[in-house]
């Protein structure tokens, strides 16, 4: 059976992604002062204004000036020095207050910070190294990452931070066989012609795709409206947590509904989703299946999950009950157990807030620890 599947991504300069990165920059700042800090922070960004609001609980005061500097540095790093949104003079309003004592009651006894459902997913795409991610979201992210690299290096002169991508793949019998459509919209300097933008972006697209996969010219849509000068928070208000499908699997797998950014790891929306990605990736890497979907559910204030579900989409080489039992025998799925195994009480979160939380390389300082493959050998015992 042949079918088409599409995923989209957004750049670090997209208004919502600006807010995700600011929320995680605030989280990292708190964790630098107190690794046990509780943080749930939301950000709104519009024309030369940033508003942060939310709840925190910390054993050490975090100076408001330090938070403001973290926000300005985040905006500067993204590349916003425009009339309508500039890291130097953006107005920052801080509405953060203390965490609710009612919520703290459950977390203080190592329970989950909220009720909810979370999913994790991994997939081996035939013939492609995608870090066990679906290919469409993998390519969508790579296009925008490469655009960002070219913009920062000066190779793509005139491009600005706000951008979106969309990749449509054709599958045949479950195997990706080609890219059929690509959409890229990118903010740009006013004096840059559409032909210049198109040629610059096409080169970056070609570098980002598997060799020989560049679609026909008429199937590559670049700035379809013909002009994209006003962008970022100046062109469209941004909010934390509005790009949850971009953050995950590009629509290829279910999503529990909870956003990640601005939340400390006691919030299972974030930490349990990271754990499930870790488990699914290790299960597929161990050769137990080609595709793995996991789900957990929690109740606020209760440490143990209420349920654990697995679906290998018929690709499993062993009984799924064996995989579930291996998880239960080897992994503590309480919030404390997840935090300890993945070492999540560190200021490692701002870097996760653009180009996907999954499909990344684990880093030496503990960043993206949920992408490690150190549990695969244990899962191989099921074979």
Radius of gyration: 21 Å
What is the residue-averaged pLDDT? 95
| Fraction in helix | 25-40%
Report, as a whole number of angstroms, the end-to-end distance.
30 Å
Major sheet size, sense and barrel closure: 4 strands, mixed
Provide an overview of this structure:
By secondary structure, the protein is α+β, with helices and mostly antiparallel strands. It has helices at about 15-35, 65-80, 100-110, 135-155, 195-210, 230-235, 245, 270-285, 320-330, 335-340, 375-380; strands spanning about 1-10, 40-45, 50-55, 80, 85, 90-100, 115-125, 160-170, 175-190, 220, 240, 290-300, 305-310. It has a 4-stranded mixed beta sheet with strand order 1-8-9-10. Helix 1 (about 15-35) crosses helix 2 (about 65-80) and helix 4 packs across helix 5 (about 195-210). The protein is flat and about 60 Å long. The chain starts with a strand and ends with a helix. The relative contact order is 0.18. The mean pLDDT is about 95.
